[in-house]
Each structure stands twice: as structure tokens, then as C-alpha cells.
Amino acid sequence: MCTISASSFRNIIQAISSSNFKIKSLVNHYAEQLIEENDDDKLKLSIACRFFNDASQYSGDADIGLSAYKHARPDFFGIAGYSLMSSPTLDIALERLAKYHPLVADSSFITLDDENEHFIISAFNKGLPSTEVTRHIIDAAAAVILGLIHWLAFPLKLQPVFVDLPYPKPAETINLQRLFGKNINFDAPHIRLVFDSEIKKKSIYSRNPGFEDVHRRYADAQLEEKINGSLMEKVRSVFSSGMTEGRLISLQEMATTLNMSKRTLQKYLEEEGVTFSALQEALRKELASNLIASSALSLKEISSILGFSQSSSLSKACQRWFSLSPGQLRAQNQKS
Fold first, then answer.
1. Highest mean pLDDT among 42-46, 128-132, 153-157
2. Which one, of 131, 140, 190, lies nearest residue 165 by Cα?
3. Measured by CB atoms within 10 angstroms of the end CB, which terminus of the chain is less buried, N or C?
4. Distance of alpha carbon 80 from alpha carbon 78, whole angstroms
5. Least confident piece of the model among 29-33, 76-80, 201-205, 289-293
6. How far is CA 286 from CA 44, 213, 291, in A?
7. What is the reported pLDDT for 299?
8. Could you tell me the CA-to-CA distances from 217 to 165, 220, 233 in Å, in that order?
């Protein structure tokens, strides 16, 4: 079954509806269907295709898939998106986009290539007959890729040299050209966005050395969990996501998120040789080390991210973890 992330899709269609009043009732209808169809955050790609088809007919907008561009934000894609946001340069961010794409969709995959001083991002349909993948969903996919690049490279608005789209040339191409430029090839085998190779070393404006390693580790863990199903890795991923949002996930919140009771969660973790509190403590320690050593955040801000109500609690934790105060830890890393 070809699927995409239900939560990511919900974020995008709700954002689209906020700027297109004609499809608000349609979005509400599909939101209910998302709840009914949602299975472990999976949504059939055919439902997403049907939404864009219906939205196009409902609004009379043949280019409605392009509206996804304005709402393409990394945080819409969970921990995979956060790993992009904290990357230092665009090439590393896009490598992670390709690597962690399976967390967002198993109906497609992304590749990156260098060719004749060009940097090429390609998106391939996987498993669904090409006749079932409509123009609207193709436009949305290409628009999201370009939107993410523009978000990450802000304030630069990097434009592709040319774009390939795998459907026949429509009667009207003005909006396509406004977004992608005039060099668009239709009836292509798959989506391709071709840029000058110099874009690869552009800095990410949201880069964050303090969070980068944590985001990468937990995106890796989530990818591993998707493959092997480790509950411990799933708990780590939820912890990481919560801390990125400035929240320390409690045992009850974790159990609710994972659709099980607190007792069952603790039992299964014990079977994997770890406890909830030990995982929580390990992540706080790791994140504290990264943020204190590598970020410009104040100790008060770091305390808040780690779920401490007072800076003094962070100081006590650092003494316990590193036998150093937060200030000493930061000074030590600055010297090295």
C-alpha cells in the first residue's frame, strides 16, 4: 500500500485551507477521513490524490497543488524536518531530506546527483501506477521541495535552472512559470529540480549546532524504528520531538502518544532492558551537553528546553552528569 504521513498531509491541507476559503468545508471532510483512515500516521496516497482533485474542482483552480509551496515548512514533517532545520548547509539538509524521506512517505523516494556543474533533486513515484498519480499531487510534491529549499536558505530565493514534470503540458502554464521559472519540461519520466551546484554550500538560516546532533540521532532512531520496530527508539524519538518544542514529555503523555497504558509502556521498556526515567535522563544529559557547548542560548533558555523550572535545577543536573557547572562546561568547550 502506497502511503504518506497523515500528520504531515493534515498540516499542509489545513494551511492551504486557511488561505482558500472555498475549500474549507472540503478540508473538514477530509480531516474526518484522516481520523478514520489513519493507521500509525499512514494515509493512502490515493486519498491525498483524491483530495487535490476534489479541491481543484471545488475551487476551480487547476493549479491548486502549487499552493503547497507557501506552506512548505520543515516542522510540518516532524523529527525529519527538524533535522533539516538544524543542518549547517543546504547540501547536508537535502541529503537528510532524501535519507529521512521514508519517514514522510513510502510511496516515493528522493535522489540527489551532481552533473555538469548542476545539482539535481529527483523525486520518483514508487508502487502506484503513474496513471493514478495526478497532476495536482505532482505539483504539490515539486512545490514542497522548492518551498523547503526557500525556507531553509532564507533570505535567498534560489531558483532552479530548469524543472521536469511528469505530465502533459497544460493549456495554461503562467502559475507554473511564476513558481518554477520559464524552463519547464513536461512529459518527463519523473520530477526533477535542477540547480546550479553552488547552492549546495549555502548556509541554513535556522542552523543550530546544539540541536543538530540530537535531531540527526533521533531521526536515525525513528528510521531504524520504522524498519525494526524498537519501542525504545520510538520513545527516544518522541522525547526528542517534545524537547525541540520546549516540552518535557511525561510518562502519561508518552503512553498516550504511543497508544498504550503507562504500565504496558514500562513493562515493554523493561523487556528491552531500559526504564522510562533512564531514557529521559540520558536524553536530557545529551541535549544539555550539546546546547551548553555549541549554542548561544542562555542557561535560562536551556533550562526551559530541558524541562527544568529553574536554572538552579540545571546547575545541579550538570554537577551530577559532568561534575561541572553549566558555566564551567561552556568555558571548557570554548577553550577546546
1. 153-157
2. 190
3. C
4. 5
5. 29-33
6. 37, 9, 9
7. 87
8. 34, 5, 10
Residues 68 and 16: beta-carbon distance below 8 Å = yes
Dihedral angle of Cα 132, 30, 72, 247, to the nearest 10 degrees: -130
Element housing 161 (H / E): none
Beta partners for residue 124, in sequence order: 109
**What CA–CA distance (Å, rounded) separates 324 from 20?**
54
Q: At what angle do helices 78-85 and 231-244 cross, to 10 degrees?
A: 50
Question: For residues 143 and 68, is the Cβ–Cβ distance under 8 A?
Answer: yes
Packed helices 276-294 and 231-244: angle between N→C axes, nearest 10 degrees: 40
The answer to whether 143 and 69 are in contact (CB under 8 A) is yes
> Considering the entire predicted model, what is its pTM?
0.72
Residue ranges per structural domain of the chain? 3-201, 209-335
Q: How many CB atoms lie within 10 A of CB 310?
A: 11
Backbone angles phi, psi at 3, to 5 degrees: -135, 160
> Residue 333: helix, strand or coil by DSSP?
helix
142 closest CA partner among 176, 115, 99? 176
Angle at which helix 326-335 crosses helix 276-294, to 10 degrees, equals 50
* CATH topology classification for 209-335: Arc Repressor Mutant, subunit A (1.10.10)
- The CA radius of gyration of the chain, in Å to the nearest whole number, is 22
109 or 186, greater pLDDT = 186
127-131: long-range pairs with CB below 8 Å, 24+ = 127/2, 128/2, 128/45, 128/46, 130/166
Question: Hunting for cell 513558481 — which residue is that?
Answer: 179
Query: What gap in Å lies between CA 231 and CA 225, rounded to an integer?
Result: 7
Burial of 148 (0-12, 13-18, 19+ CB in 10 A): buried
